[in-house]
Amino acid sequence: MGSSTSQQEFDYLFKLLLIGDSGVGKSTLLLSFTSNSFEELSPTIGVDFKIKYVTLGGKKLKLAIWDTAGQERFRTLTSSYYRGAQGIIMVYDVTRRETFTNLSDIWAKEIDLYLTNQNCIKMLVGNKVDKESERVVSKKEGIDFAREYGCLFLECSAKTRVNVEQCYDELVLKILDTPSLLAEGSSGVKKNIFKQNPPSSDASASGCCSW
């Protein structure tokens, strides 16, 4: 996926959402993709987002990628960010069984509850494959889950950048191949996704498609 030379002109604007438990590497996956770097990051507070301009499939694209907090106390803040998403990336840590179990126990239910776009493309990502010796979730389990829930699937490492770009490439190519999502993402359509400002860091809370 190559960066577009112009950061003003684009054919389509797509909203992508990263979800999953705290500590699975959502923020590092986003940073690795948008800035080609890796950092150990502290947990996201509320919601953050970054913009990435790319050219893919002969189209200039503007990707608004939203990174949500995994902690339960922030979930009431992040529910509204599902609205209008054309792509959702569900991330788990291959070295932590509970982050995989919570995909069906928590995150699938959230998508079913909050997602407004029934044609949204979902991708399942198993992160931290650089820690192969600590793996507890097999690749076959990931494949089986993705097949059951109708997701794309890849394993990757935000640290070594293995398959990081491929995650976004495959997701966006699938969106480009879905007419209804393409129509929504047209640059001629008025967008209000940036009106959803990320909560300030002192904000507190007590807490793709149909599955």
UniProtKB/TrEMBL annotation:
Any GO molecular function: GTPase activity
Keywords from the named record: Cell membrane, GTP-binding, Lipoprotein, Membrane, Nucleotide-binding, Prenylation, Protein transport, Transport
Coiled-coil segments: none
Superkingdom per UniProt: Eukaryota
Name of the protein in question: Uncharacterized protein
Places the protein is found: Cell membrane
Primary role: Intracellular vesicle trafficking and protein transport.
Membrane topology category: Lipid-anchor
GO BP term (any one): protein transport
Short name of one Pfam family: Ras
One GO term describing the cellular component: plasma membrane
Family: Belongs to the small GTPase superfamily. Rab family.
Entry-linked Gene3D superfamilies: P-loop containing nucleotide triphosphate hydrolases
First-listed, main subcellular location of the protein, grouped into a coarse class: membrane
Organism: Acer yangbiense
InterPro entries: P-loop_NTPase (IPR027417), Rab (IPR050227), Sigma_54_int_dom_ATP-bd_1 (IPR025662), Small_GTP-bd (IPR005225), Small_GTPase (IPR001806)
